[in-house]
Structures are given as structure tokens and as C-alpha cells.
Amino acid sequence: MFAGKTTYLINLASKLPIKSYWLFKPSIDIRYSHEALVTHDGLSLKGFSLDNQRPKFPGLEAIIKTIFIDELNFFKTKPLLSELSKIRDSGINIVAAGLMYDSNRRPFGATLPLSKIADKYIQLYAVCDGCGQKAEHSYVKGQKTKQIALGAKEMYGVCCEQCWQFFNIDRKLV
Prior knowledge:
Blueprint: H1 5-14, E1 21-26, E2 37-38, E3 44-45, E4 48-50, E5 66-69, H2 77-89, E6 93-96, H3 111-115, E7 126-127, E8 134-135, E9 137-140, E10 156-159, H4 161-167
Parallel strand pairs: 1-4, 1-5, 5-6
Antiparallel strand pairs: 2-3, 7-8, 9-10
């Protein structure tokens, strides 16, 4: 979290001809907008919402060369992989971003499995809230009862391995 994944997608898309790409995000991610991809600091670009359980991409016209997908971690792996295989077979480029692990350091949604079959994989990092080093993990500022709990800076922070132990020392992990 807070490593610039959505910013990265928006910046890449913004360099392409306007009608040559589409942006997608999971329908459950309504933190800032129902459809637009929006960064934590307010940068946004119009997109489309997809069902995170059974994603179905709308008919991709011949002019669409690239699709961008944000928050892979909120999608179920098998249905998304099936759809993305069809898209890739049609010659459309796929650029996606998401968290590999949740705040308990468990694999989170489709990101990790899809990173293993990607042609190219880039990992971005935030800055640790505790010590200022490279943040590889997120932590919850309080409690949560399920793996998917939408939130931003009010609910989550980021940290390195050593600080993750500190931030979670008295927390019941769910």
C-alpha cells in the first residue's frame, strides 16, 4: 500500500492515445470512486468497474491495444485468469497492479499467482512508517475481521519486516 501502484498505472495509460486503452478496477473498491481509478492523493482517470467474483470484460473493440487493471488483490484468481487469457490471446496488452500480501502477510487475491505468469513484473515499495526504510508490508491500525476490509491511511499503514513485528505485537491477527 502507498507505493504508487495506481499512480504508475495512470501515468502509463496517460502516455497512450486516449482511445487505445481501457482501465478497470474491482466493483467492491468504492473508496474514492465507483469507476475511476483514483490515487490516495487524488489523481484520477476514468475507468470501468468489474465484478471481483466473476469479472467479465466488455467487448474490447479492435482499437483497444492495452487494458489496465487496478487492485488485482480484490479479484478471485481463477475467473480473472480465464478472462485475461482470452484477452491476451487476442493480442491485447495487460498491465495490472495489486498487493501481493494482506496485512497478515498472507497471499492476497489474484496478484501473486498472476505475477508468476506475467511477461514483466515490477515491484514498488512505500516508505516504512516506523523507521523510514523500504516498506514491504502493510499493517492494520486497529482491528479487522476479514481479509478484505476497504480503507486507506485511516485504517492501514506500511512498514518493513522489523517494524511489522512491532506494529503487530499486541494485535490479534485475523
